[in-house]
Amino acid sequence: MRQIDHHIVGGASGSSRHSDIFDPNNGGVQAAVALGDAALLDRAVAAANAAQPAWAAVNPQRRARVMFEYKRIVESHLDELAELLASEHGKVVADARGDVQRGLDVIEFCCGIPHVLKGEYTQGAGPGIDVYSMRQPIGIGAGITPFNFPAMIPMWMFGPAIATGNAFILKPSERDPSVPVRLGELMLEAGLPEGILQVVHGDKEMVDAILDHPDIAAVSFVGSSDIAHYVYNRGVSNGKRVQAMGGAKNHGIVMPDADLDQVVNDLTGAAFGSAGERCMALPVVVPVGEDTANRLRAKLIPAIEALRVGVSTDAEAHYGPVVSAAHKEKVEGWIRKCADEGAELVIDGRGFTLQGHEDGFFVGPTLFDHVTPDMESYREEIFGPVLQIVRAPDFESALDLPSKHQYGNGVAIFTRNGHAAREFAQRVNVGMVGINVPIPVPVAYHTFGGWKRSAFGDTNQHGMEGVKFWTKVKTVTARWPDGGGDGSNAFVIPTMG
Q1: Going by C-beta distance under 8 Å and a sequence separation of 6 or more, which residues neighbour residue 48?
Q2: Residue 279 among the catalytic residues
Q3: Residue from 187, 116, 189 nearest 151 by CA
Q4: Taking every pair of C-alpha atoms in the chain, what is the biggest distance, in angstroms?
Q5: pLDDT of residue 496
Q6: Across the strands, what pairs with 389?
Q7: pLDDT at residue 493 is higher than 90
Q8: Among 31, 353, 398, 461, which residue carries the largest CB count within 10 Å?
Q9: Is the pTM of this model over 0.70?
Q10: How would residue 93 be classed by pLDDT, with cut points 50, 70 and 90?
Q11: What is the band of 485 on the pLDDT scale with cuts at 50, 70, 90?
């Protein structure tokens, strides 16, 4: 059986604990990953401490050249990475390619790191006094990443961290760890010094070790909201800078004037793509008015029934299995819960099987109508191929639903009315807004982050917010006296005179 080890300086083998890695397409165990502990993390941190000062001293354009080369190398391995990712996660290969590509978008942004690291300068802030600022690396950063994007989210984190001069320790999900390890190996090929990017595997024991380690200055996390809250509190209590991205329940508001054919096309991809295992999926659609709801439902049913569920290597499949048997059980439990709460189960995806892959972790596409805000299945994140229709009588009621929900990651509005779209974007209490865009993930040079229980911490991921998170500002006030010696050039604090 294939064994997946840690990617740290000096190698790491002989771990006493391991975790099985399943093939979601057939339910079988395909590999085992070593689980580390605090002692192993100490080794990785020691190597990072040894390597980071020299890497920080490398001028920004040379660090950018490593990013350029890394982008080229990863692109040359795109097919390999996508197939490996799909085999452990279960998403279809086309989605897996997108996973890698969206990570590379941030690496591409990092190729311009010399420009974004430029500080501020004020000449003549006082008599003969200049003031300037510089952005310097924080030292060692760490990332704790989820199973649903094992390429994209690690690159969102370690790209800006490394480009700004830090060392980085990545702890990916133990469910699909092979691609993160491969990304670390390819970074060495790109010319990154050993010790700057290392990958450690583990469960809660490793997470706590990262949060408690005194030499790790900042931690970035993506996962469920409860764990995000835990990571944030424990990390901050240990004096760390922490950004912790949590769950989501994204809404799609459909106005009466929307192009319903386009909306249905967008919804089938946004709600069911990658089996709904996306924090930016669109699992709730809010048609405004009964006529809009009835017309939308009539178009949605045949579109959902036409979706093809298949193995991850099926080029014709719209989506593949969920990541694990436990997650399949959880999603089907939410379907049962929503029906028990009184919602109308229009299409039931439970019990879906694929011939020849009867033990795979498949969940069929599911549609509910007449879901109400008091239902637990609406309030909580399902994270599966389930779409809920929540009918709203008017624009204000539709605006209230995402604004008052506990999560505030993303939201979309579908309309031809520019005034309605502008009003919605300004007023909605959600961090990322799409206007006729179902999954409003910002491009890499903007920034990603939700509000409310979707994010803990004050700084978002990638873009300039990411650069700010992985750096600290130093401000210098400088004076070069003429050297007259008569005291005429004595420095006077402005508040003194």
Answers
A1: 140, 167, 168, 169, 195, 196, 198, 215
A2: yes
A3: 187
A4: 94
A5: 47
A6: 285
A7: no
A8: 398
A9: yes
A10: very high
A11: low
- At 78 the pLDDT is 97
| Tokens found for residue 129 | 């006094």
pLDDT digits (tens, 9 = 90+) for 362-376: 999 999 999 999 999
Query: In what order do the strands lie in the sheet containing 129-137?
Result: 121-126, 129-137, 471-479
CA distances from 183 to 81, 89, 161, 266 (A): 9, 16, 15, 31
The pLDDT assigned to 490 comes to: 60
| CA geometry: angle 311, 102, 3, nearest 5 deg | 55
DSSP string, 188-236: HHTTPPTTSEEE---SHHHHHHHHH-TT--EEEEES-HHHHHHHHHHHH
Distance of CA 298 to the CA centre of its chain: 34
Cβ contacts of residue 348 below 8 Å, gap of 6+?
A: 335, 364, 366
Average pLDDT, the chain: 95
Question: At 19, which helix (H) or strand (E)?
Answer: strand 17-22
Instruction: Give the active site residue among 110, 111, 279, 338.
Output: 279
Strands 407-408 and 386-389: unpaired
Strands 251-254 and 241-245: unpaired
For tokens 């420009």, what's the residue? 115
The residue behind tokens 């979707």 is 454
